[in-house]
Amino acid sequence: MKSYDKDIVAWANEQAQLLRAGRFDLLDIERIADEIEDVGKSEQNELASRMALLLSHLLKWAYQPQRRGNSWLRTIRDQRRLIQRRLDKTPSLRPMLSDPDWQDEMWVDAVRFAQQETGLDAFPENCPWSWQDEVLAEGWLPQ
Question: Are 34 and 83 a contacting pair, CB within 8 Å?
Answer without folding.
Answer: no
